[in-house]
Amino acid sequence: MGEQPIFSTRAHVFQIDPNTKKNWVPTSKHAVTVSYFYDSTRNVYRIISLDGSKAIINSTITPNMTFTKTSQKFGQWADSRANTVYGLGFSSEHHLSKFAEKFQEFKEAARLAKEKSQEKMELTSTPSQESAGGDLQSPLTPESINGTDDERTPDVTQNSEPRAEPTQNALPFSHSSAISKHWEAELATLKGNNAKLTAALLESTANVKQWKQQLAAYQEEAERLHKRVTELECVSSQANAVHTHKSELNQTIQELEEALKEKEEEIERLKQEIDNARELQEQRDSLTQKLQEVEIRNKDLEGQLSDLEQRLEKSQNEQEAFRNNLKTLLEILDGKIFELTELRDNLAKLLECS
């Protein structure tokens, strides 16, 4: 095909409101593919975007166009042929900068192509001075319509040849008069030829203008037909792009599903960790409660131990006092036993004596 995409990106497409000329009207519900196309047969660059089978952008790049960045992710350009302003919203500033660079690059290429075509047009419409004496092939040039200079110059020579030079025997007056008539005739001939050339030039200029008008009409018709063909070709290429984008979306969905699965596994793991943490917290609270109970019991036991120590000390003091009293009683008892023994002995003696 003569026209092929050379750069593509994705963006949201907008057009200026034709009524207010201020508000943006979205022409696509979601981001679509926006492509630069190059027509090698006509040396033309175009921006084309399709939403399904509908062409929402079909803009031919001209040297007068300017792409303006209005924000970090939005740019616009005016198309005088379509009588509208297009706007593109990108997903990142990098995509916007890349699109703007390509726009400037292809705009410069379009300018160079236009200059070359104008040079070719001038060469085909205006004959060269060096080839003025030759037979030109263009049917619209002055020479091809009214004849070349070489074809017209014989008229001068034919008019001048019958005028023979005066003989040497003629009188000076008659010789001067003949020369004057000769130059007057030459001047009249030249004026006639000049008038013929002027008329031929005017006629050829009118023919060239008519030819240019017809050529412009043919070019417009050819461009319209070529746009239609390009739209049909773009539908086919866009279908491939949609298929590729669908494959990319399926791959992205698969990656997202895997990522979602990993996230769900991580969530389950975090839930288990949270449950374990809750169990540990409950165990900690239970152990804390038990520790408080043990501390209370320890305090009670300490109080009981202190009481027992006091009671033990009191018992020990009582036992010591009891021992002392018992010892005293034993000593008294020993004295009493000794006295009784002495008494028994005395009684025994008395019995013996009696």
Describe the model.
The chain is of the alpha+beta class and 354 residues long. The protein has a domain at 5-118: Roll (PH-domain like), CATH 2.30.29. 66% of the residues lie in helices and 15% in strands. It contains 4 helices and 8 strands, in the order ββββββββαααα. It has helices at residues 93-125, 142-146, 149-160, 172-353, and strands at residues 3-16, 24-26, 32-39, 44-51, 54-60, 68-69, 74-79, 84-89. Strands 1, 2, 3, 4, 5, 6, 7 and 8 form an 8-stranded antiparallel sheet that branches. Helix 3 (149-160) packs antiparallel against helix 4. The protein is rod-shaped. The N and C termini lie far apart (175 Å). Mean pLDDT is 79; it is low at 128-173.
List keywords for this structure.
354 residues; alpha+beta; PH-domain like; 8-stranded antiparallel beta sheet; 4 helices; 15% strand; rod-shaped
